[in-house]
C-alpha cells in the first residue's frame, strides 16, 4: 500500500536559486489589431475634467514559492511546488483602504498527478498551513509555477468581478485573460510592463510623445478568446535616464459592453490614474507601479506569513513522514 | 470584568516589568490608566500582572516614508493607524516573574483590581493624597508618614505653578479629616511657616471661589470641603510697638503677635540662630557664639527670676536687644578698649570676635524687634505655643532673611526639645516649611540645618514629620531629601528634572514634570514602584484675601443700594 503513495521530497534547489522564469501573462498568439475603431485620426486624446471622487478599486496579487518539490511516483519523477498567494484590493473612496485580502496555498504538481492536501503544523501545532492540491497536465520544471500563477490570477479575476458591482471601476493588475467572458462589469486590465508590441512601428511613434494624462485612441485586439479594446496611457514622467516609454501603461477593457462603454473607461483611466503614479524615490518600478498597488502588495506579502517559518513547518512535516 | 482594551504586543519584547499593548479599535488608553493582564503557565497557574500606562503612541502602519502621511490623507496610499501603549508593571500576583504572553487581552483595572494594582489593598491606614486622572482616589500608606515605617514629605517644583504649599496644606487637611489617623487626629498638630506671599494666612477661612466640581472632588476623596477649624495665626510683633501689635499683612483679625524675651533667647541658647547665614558657617565663629552664650546663661541665672523677661549683665539690666548688643560690643567700658565679647572670648582670635560683633550688630537691625526684655504683657499670649491649636501658622514672609532664619530655627529647636523631653512619638507634629534650600542648603552647615537634619533623621521616632518644599531638590541637603518617604514633584524646570535627585521618575514622567498644570503633582511612595500622577482639589480654604467668603453681615452692606 505504502509503495503506491507518491513520496514527496524537496527539490535540492531551493526556490530562491531558481532563475527568473518569466511567466507570460500576455499570450504570444498572433493578434490582429484595428487602430481605427475610435477615431480615424491616430492622435493623442486628452480627456479633461477633474478626477471624480467616486469609488475606485485596484486588484492585485502576490505569490511566493515556499518549496519546490520532486515527487517520486512509482518510477517517474514529477515536478511540483508548495506555494502561497495573496489577493486583495485597495478601495479608494474618501480614503484608501486595503480590503478583501485572501490568502491561498496550493500544492501544484505536474503530469496530472493530484496529491492529498498537504498539512504543515507550526510550532506547537495549534495553528498550521494547508496546501490545497492542484494538478497541471505538463511535467516540466515551469509547469508548477504556471499552476501557482494561474491560481493567483483566477483569484484576482474573481475578486475583480465581485468588486465591479460595488465600485465605479476596477483596475485589475495584468491583462484580462482570466476574467470570464460573462463578466460585464467595469473591469479594466492594467498592464505595467510593455513586453509585447501591439502597434506597428508607424503607430508606435505616438507613444513617447504622449503627455501625462494623454492616451492613444482605442484599438481593438482581435484575440482568440475574446476581443478586447485597449489603449496606451501616460501616467507619469520617467527620469531623464529612463527610457522614453517609462510612464506608459497599457490598459484593456472587454469589448462586450461596446465601444462607448470602453471609451468611458478609457477617459476615466486617463483622468484618474496619473494621481496614483509613484515616484522613483519610493519605488524602483515607478511610476508604473501605482502607490495603492505597491501598498497592497506589501500588505499581501506580509499576510503570506514568514517564509522561514513556513519552510520550517514543511520540512518538519516531511521529516516526520520520512521517519515514520 | 471590563471588556479588553487591547492585547499584549508580540512585535515588541514583552517583559515581566514592562510590555506594550496594542489598543483595539474604538478603545483608547491614556497615560496613567491602570491595566491588568493575566498570563497562563503550563501548570495551569494564572499570573496576573498589573501596571500603569506611561507611554502611548500612534503610527501609520503600511507607510514607510514621512511623506506617506500626505498620500494617506489624499486617499492614495492605504494605511491603518495603530495605537499602542507602554505599561510599566506595578505588581505581579502570584510573584512569578514571567512576561505576559503576546496576544493576551489587557483590561482596565477597576474597583478591587485597581486597589491591588496600586497596592491600596495592603494599606491598613489609607491617606487620600489626590485623584487620578480618571477621577478615582489615590492613597498613600499612612505608615510611611506618621513614623511607623517612614516619615517626611519632600515637594519640588517651580514657584508659582507647582503649587507646592497648596499641596502641603491639602495633605494636612487629608491627615486631619480623612479619618486615617483615627482617634489621634484631634491631637495632631501642624506648624506651618508662611515664608512668602500670604497664601497660608487664611487657612481657617472658607474659600468663596470653591466650585461645585471641586466639592465633588473632595467628596470622592472622602474629605469634607471645609477650611481648617483649629488655627492660630502668629505674626511677628511690630517694631517698637509697646502694645505688642502684630505686623499683619492683609489679614487683620485673629492674628496674635509673637516675640522672644531676652531671657529666653539667652537661656534657650537661641543666639546662634542669628548667625545662620551661609557665610557664617565657620567653626571659629560658632566657637565664639558658644562661649558668649555660655557666659550669658550664667549672667541670666544670676539675675532675676525665670519669669522675668530681662537679664542683667555685669549689673546692667538689659531690656532691649539693642542694649544687649551695646553691652557686648561697647569698647569704652575699660581702659584697654576691649569689648565684653572680646573679654569673654579671649581664647578666640580677635578677628573672629570682631566678625561676631559685626554680625551681631547687623542682626540687631533686622531681628532686634523680635527679642525684648520689657513690655512683654502676658507672656503666654505671645509665645509660639504650637499645642494651643491644631494648626499654627507662623507668618514670616515680611521679615528679613536673617530674621526668617532666626524664627524658623528658634521655633523648631524649642518644639524639638519639647518633643525630646516628652519621649513619645505622640502627639504627632507636622512641620510645613517652604524654601527648604534656604534653611538646609546642600553646601555648608549651620545651626538651622542641624535642627532640620535632626528632625529628618530622628523625627520619625519623636513624631515630628517634616513636610519640606523647595524649587529644586538638588540645592537641598541630600540626606533631608533622601529621608523623605513621600516624594512629590510639581512642575519642574526641564533641566532640573534630569538631575539624579529625581531618579525615581521614569523618563516619561520627567518629560511630563515639565508640563504639569497647577493642581497636578507626581507622587512617589515607597510601596508603589512607579510614581503616580495625582490631581488635588482646589483649596476649600482661602489662599488670599479676595477668596475669603464674605460673612452675611458684610455681604449685606450694599443691600440698600441695589435696584431691586
Question: How would you characterize this protein structure?
Answer:
- In chain A, strands 1, 2, 3, 4, 5, 6, 7, 8, 9, 10, 11 and 12 form a twelve-stranded mixed sheet that branches.
- The relative contact order of chain A is 0.18.
- The longest helix of chain A has 22 residues.
- Chain A has a single domain, classed as archaeoglobus fulgidus dsm 4304 fold, CATH 3.30.2170.
- Chain A is built from six helices and twelve strands.
- Chain A is α+β, with helices and mostly antiparallel strands and 324 residues long.
- Chain B is an alpha/beta fold.
- Chain B folds into three domains: 114 residues, Elongation Factor Tu (Ef-tu), domain 3 (Beta Barrel), CATH 2.40.30; 221 residues, Rossmann fold; 113 residues, no CATH class.
- In chain B, the strands form five sheets. A ten-stranded mixed sheet of chain B has the order 12-11-17-10-18-19-9-20-21-22. In chain B, strands 1-2-5-4-3-6 form a six-stranded antiparallel barrel. A two-stranded antiparallel sheet of chain B has the order 7-8.
- In chain B, helix 7 packs antiparallel against helix 9 and helix 10 runs parallel beside helix 12.
- In chain B, 48% of the residues are buried.
- The C terminus of chain B is likely disordered.
- Chains A and B meet through strand 5 and helix 5 of A and helix 1 of B.
Layout: helices, strands, pairs:
The complex is a heterodimer of chains A (324) and B (564).
Chain A: E1 7-10, E2 32-34, E3 56-73, E4 76-92, E5 96-109, E6 118-122, E7 127-135, H1 143-164, E8 169-173, E9 187-191, H2 201-204, H3 206-209, E10 219-222, E11 228-234, E12 248-254, H4 259-272, H5 291-303, H6 307-323
Parallel strand pairs in A: 3-8, 5-7, 8-9
Antiparallel strand pairs in A: 1-3, 2-10, 3-4, 4-5, 6-7, 9-12, 10-11, 11-12
Chain B: E1 4-8, E2 18-23, E3 34-40, E4 46-61, H1 68-74, E5 80-93, E6 105-108, H2 112-117, E7 126-131, E8 137-141, E9 153-156, H3 164-177, E10 189-194, H4 212-220, E11 231-236, E12 255-258, E13 260-261, H5 262-267, H6 283-302, E14 311-313, E15 316-318, H7 321-329, H8 340-344, H9 350-367, E16 371-372, E17 391-395, H10 401-422, E18 429-433, H11 436-439, H12 447-462, E19 464-470, H13 478-482, E20 486-489, H14 494-497, H15 507-513, E21 520-524, E22 532-535, H16 552-555
Parallel strand pairs in B: 9-19, 9-20, 10-17, 10-18, 11-12, 11-17, 13-16, 18-19
Antiparallel strand pairs in B: 1-2, 1-6, 2-5, 3-4, 3-6, 4-5, 7-8, 14-15, 20-21, 21-22
